[in-house]
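Input record, target 12 of the design panel.
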């Protein structure tokens, strides 16, 4: 349905909270670049409003925001093809987010597994923003009437909530096709990159051990060391992908290899069937270095010129605002807010 009624448009975002991992790169950024190179309009956000749902030191937030822009650009996002901006600079996100707080139901929010994981036993002490976060995420997507959202597996439930919010808004206000029913795009071998020390847990920037993750800014030596020490198992690589079924660490390493080389896991297994870890791990480490080192070198170069990065964000924010503001104005009319004058934007 989304395809026929609404112009195709891609939106996605990443939080500038701490470093970026190989999970962010393979699950999101690499796929943002692939989608940029199609005919569909692409909008990629640095979601700073989301970052502050947990405490962020202001100067670290500024650094992480710029570093994420540097990662986007160094990985191949091109400002002449994609809109790159930071969320706080387009007021429609927060304004539509409030309206969606009034559309989403408590029961829906209570089912959000990521909130439960993040809040843990501490649910009474976390911010209200952390709880409301998925409805702001729906606003991010729907302020652009985005039809497609490339994300990793962990964001699937949030995109499903976005669909529920869009459907309820369209229904309650009797505007059947106003918001599209957005499709999550969760594809490829790296929709869920797992930790290097524990193949049953997602690789994350906040995980306890730095050896569990590859950071996009890690040096070549560190990347080699981390893959060398990565947990594997006692068996050689199997003859087919089915043989990886009950081997989470082995499966993860093969999937990482596949995504880094733009191949399928099947073709990687075909090449390495029967190989020992002593052969596969160094090949994987070399491959990772060959992909990540040029990106991290370019990121450091871009970070030398923060004014240039801020200019990218300012120009992107103006373009994003030009799309989101008219959508918000329509929403205000639909909801029944009186708009007496043109807003000074
Ligand atoms: P965030 O910042 O936690 O992660 C950014 C993106 O990286 C993906 N990702 C992974 N993919 C595979 N394996 C992993 N180990 C891994 N770790 C992270 C995430 O799935 C995500 O795609 N709520 C979102 C940000 C957001 C957003 C949006 C996304 C805010 N508004 C609107 C899409 C559309 C988040 O916290 O992602």
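The sequence produced for target 12 reads:
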């Amino acid at each position: 349905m989304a395809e026929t009624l609404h112009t195709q448009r891609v939106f996605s975002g990443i939080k500038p909270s701490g470093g970026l991992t190989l999970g962010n790169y393979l699950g999101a950024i690499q796929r943002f670049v692939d989608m940029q190179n199609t005919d569909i309009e692409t909008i990629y956000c640095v979601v700073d409003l989301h970052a502050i749902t947990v405490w962020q030191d202001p100067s670290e937030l500024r650094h992480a925001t710029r570093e994420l822009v540097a990662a986007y650009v160094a990985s191949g996002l091109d400002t002449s093809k994609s809109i790159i901006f930071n969320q706080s600079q387009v007021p429609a996100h927060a304004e539509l987010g409030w309206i969606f707080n009034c559309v989403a139901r408590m029961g829906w929010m209570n089912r959000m597994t990521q909130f439960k994981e993040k809040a843990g036993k501490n649910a009474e002490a976390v911010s209200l923003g952390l709880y409301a976060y998925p409805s702001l995420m729906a606003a991010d997507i729907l302020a652009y009437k985005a039809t497609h959202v490339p994300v990793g597996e962990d964001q699937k439930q949030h995109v499903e909530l976005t669909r529920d919010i869009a459907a309820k808004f369209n229904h309650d206000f009797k505007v059947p096709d106003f918001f599209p029913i957005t499709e999550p795009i969760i594809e490829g071998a790296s929709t869920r990159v797992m930790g290097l020390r524990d193949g049953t847990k997602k690789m994350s920037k906040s995980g306890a051990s730095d050896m569990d993750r590859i950071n996009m800014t890690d040096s070549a030596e560190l990347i080699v060391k981390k893959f060398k020490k990565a947990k594997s198992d006692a068996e050689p690589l199997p003859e087919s992908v089915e043989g990886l079924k009950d081997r989470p660490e082995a499966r993860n390493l093969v999937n990482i290899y596949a995504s880094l080389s733009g191949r399928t896991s099947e073709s990687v297994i075909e090449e390495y069937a029967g190989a020992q870890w002593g052969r596969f791990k160094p090949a994987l480490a070399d491959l990772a270095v060959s992909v990540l080192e040029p990106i991290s070198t370019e990121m450091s170069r871009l970070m030398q010129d923060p004014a240039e990065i801020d200019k990218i964000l300012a120009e992107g924010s103006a373009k994003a605002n030009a799309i989101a503001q008219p959508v918000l104005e329509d929403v205000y009319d639909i909801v029944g807010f009186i708009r007496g004058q043109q807003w000074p934007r």
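The CA atoms of residues 218 and 296 lie 8 Å apart.
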